[in-house]
Design goal:
Among the domains are: 70 residues; 65 residues. By secondary structure, it is mainly α. One of its GO terms (molecular function) is DNA binding.
């Protein structure tokens, strides 16, 4: 070709194709350039897609793999390329752009995007406005210790510990429960008939503890007599 022959004439003279001679004239391509020629997208287009994926991820709508493939397919169709992407394209795309590999959602994660309908977003905004309108001011939210109601008094235990009375004081105490009577005449009850013991317990609630002890010592008392005594205790 240095002697003024065209590529076509030189190729015919040396018995090779014109395309082969043309590639030899241009020189061999670098590995990176030859790889770019085999890709469906230009590097600038892939950078745009990576930025779009990052923006969607920040907005809480990380796209799924089918969504990325559909987006790229629409770009190719606008450029006149109507061929489908290969089944391995998305994997090769992630290998070339690993920074977006973790941002492409799975089927579970992409449910957030499908569930973010216009109605749900509008309802969420209205709810946020209502919460903001009903929120307390900082001044109202301040807690004034003086305005707080007094703390409720600590209630004493239901069964307070018993205080042993002296012999001089015990005569003025009156049993209030069956437990009081049982403790007062516990030494006299073991050999007493259970029904008769119950009569004495009921009677002793209206009698002095000392009288209950005396009544308990009289084990041979008959049931009718105890009943009469109970009736007499109820009379004013």
């Amino acid at each position: 070709m240095h002697n003024g022959l065209s590529q076509r004439a030189a190729a015919k003279k040396h018995g090779i194709t014109q395309s082969t001679l043309s590639r030899r004239v241009r020189g061999p391509l670098t590995k990176r350039k030859s790889k770019v020629l085999t890709q469906r997208l230009f590097p600038s287009q892939e950078r745009f897609i990576c930025k779009r994926i990052s923006d969607e991820d920040k907005a809480g709508r990380a796209p799924s793999r089918p969504q990325v493939v559909g987006f790229v397919t629409s770009i190719l169709k606008r450029a006149g390329d109507h061929d489908k992407l290969g089944p391995q394209w998305i994997d090769l795309f992630i290998n070339r752009n690993p920074e977006v590999g973790t941002k492409i959602s799975s089927s579970l994660g992409s449910a957030r995007a499908r569930g973010s309908t216009k109605g749900s977003v509008t309802t969420s905004d209205l709810l946020g406005d209502q919460i903001g309108d009903n929120a307390l001011d900082d001044s109202d939210a301040m807690i004034n210790d003086d305005a707080l109601p007094p703390s409720p008094a600590i209630k004493p235990p239901r069964t307070p510990p018993r205080v042993e009375d002296s012999e001089d004081e015990i005569i003025f105490n009156t049993p209030k429960t069956g437990r009081d009577v049982m403790e007062a005449i516990q030494d006299e009850l073991p050999n007493m008939d259970p029904h008769l013991a119950m009569v004495f317990i009921k009677t002793a609630k209206a009698l002095d503890i000392q009288n209950a002890k005396v009544a308990a010592l009289e084990r041979q008392i008959q049931y009718p007599e105890a009943r009469l005594e109970l009736q007499g205790a109820r009379e004013p």
